[in-house]
Write a structure and sequence with these properties.
Layout (H helix, E strand, L loop, with lengths): L23 E3 L2 E3 L5 E6 L6 E7 L2 H17 L6 H17 L1 H12 L3 H22 L17 E5 L5 H14 L3 E5 L6 H12 L7 E3 L4 H9 L5 E5 L2 H11 L5 E5 L5 E4 L5 H13 L11 E5 L3 H12 L20 H16 L3 E3 L15 E4 L6 H4 L6 E7 L2 H9 L6 E5 L3 H10 L4 E4 L18 E2 L6 H4 L4
Parallel strand pairs: 5-6, 5-8, 6-7, 8-9, 10-11, 10-15, 11-14, 13-14, 15-16
Antiparallel strand pairs: 1-2, 3-4, 9-17, 12-13
This protein binds nicotinamide-adenine-dinucleotide (NAD).
Length: 477
Amino acid sequence: MPRFEYAPAPESRAIVDIQPSYGLFIGGEFVDPADGGVMKSVNPASEEVLAEVVEAGPQDVDRAVRTARAAYDGVWGRMPGRDRAKYLFRIARIIAERSRELAVLESLENGKPIRESRDADLPLVAAHFFYYAGWADKLGHAGFGTDPRPLGVAGQVIPWNFPLLMLAWKVAPALACGNTVVLKPAETTPLSALRFAEICQQADLPPGVVNIVTGAGATGAAVVDHPDVDKVAFTGSTEVGKQIARSVAGTRKRVTLELGGKAANIVFDDAAIDQAVEGIVNGIFFNQGHVCCAGSRLLVQESVYDQLLASLKRRMATLRVGDPLDKNTDIGAINSGAQLERIRTLSEIGQQEGAQPWSPPCELPDRGFWFAPTIFTGVTQAHRIAREEIFGPVLSVLTFRTPDEAVAKANNTPYGLSAGIWSEKGSRILSTADKLRAGVVWANTFNKFDPSSPFGGYKESGYGREGGRHGLEAYLA
Ligand code: NAD
């Protein structure tokens, strides 16, 4: 029987109108910078410049924080929860209505496949706002005292891997609790945050409740270090998280840090192998592996190693790498040249240290930033590719013989964000999960998210929880 080939199925980008340049969003309107510079947003799949945005300076950040303070004192901090909820519900509905436009913009700027931005990111973004809208008038029943109070101004800094979803994780609980916000999106993905600013205008959110300052690390540091910020919420690398922990130490600021990970995905010999293979693929190749909780270390019980590896390679050969806007694409572009360089460097180190790489045959586009899905076998716990976060579509495969060895290897990492267990025995799943030092443990699935479920890490993966009732705590006094 002849093999069917996929025809191109591109999503139209006509729905997204991108302006040549954007100002900062302060006080409910787009304003010119006082001391900011200019930086470019680039489509990583084509290297085309999408727009110019401001690289905000200290004066700009100061203006944003002062505006957020005025909005907190004057309006938002004293508004009854039931009224704040109405704004949050309105924002959630507008996001749902404009989700196609937002999904296309997210894929254009981030490089993630439209299938994922349309079916995972955007539904989760809307769900997060709906979920926290529901809490705004029930904070006295959340288990944090009968009259919990907001903290004031939240300074929030987010990464580029899930630009809108990370914004939702930060902004929705902060606003639900009555705080105002100064948010800095990542330097490579500012456009969806600026589109969110337009949504705040469309929802008639009082000016100054949400302020968005674009820029790079220095702008983020200015937000974090501003003396009038009451709460710092950071998602990003462990290295920067440590710097932030140092810089806020000794101040009265509250802090939550959501940092990196090196999750173990453990497959026992009684697991349903095909199901596990789907979970492994989803665990490491979802969003090009740019996922803090990615299952980047596969631990396989020795007796099923050959069978599982053959099955995994067969499945990987069906993955389609290419245009993020093609609806059949499984793996899109790497977000930036710098990130591609990091993935290449660590992969080369993996080879030099003696691990064996394998990738399915796949043609990569000429322009843009691309990396073929890759697995490394023969990996030991001492290898850097087993210890460091690669943050790309690269899986390190290790083996184990006994459940105790699996747990010891899984916990042998400075991180502790997530883990996965594949077994048909409930008792084995529960006893293993109990011993894993990870904030989230998935069983017979991976990368499942829900706004009602808390998320966060142990050890160098950070502290504090986002999502669920627990996520309110970080924004309440
Ligand atoms: P990054 O730490 O380089 O940057 C994150 C953000 O911090 C960006 O907006 C950046 O501009 C800003 N920043 C950089 N230096 C700063 C400084 N000194 N002070 C304040 N802000 C500063 O991380 P990245 O490369 O953008 O993102 C990838 C990392 O994020 C990975 O390590 C990943 O695991 C982590 N991450 C964690 C979670 C989680 O929930 N735990 C979620 C997503 C991503």
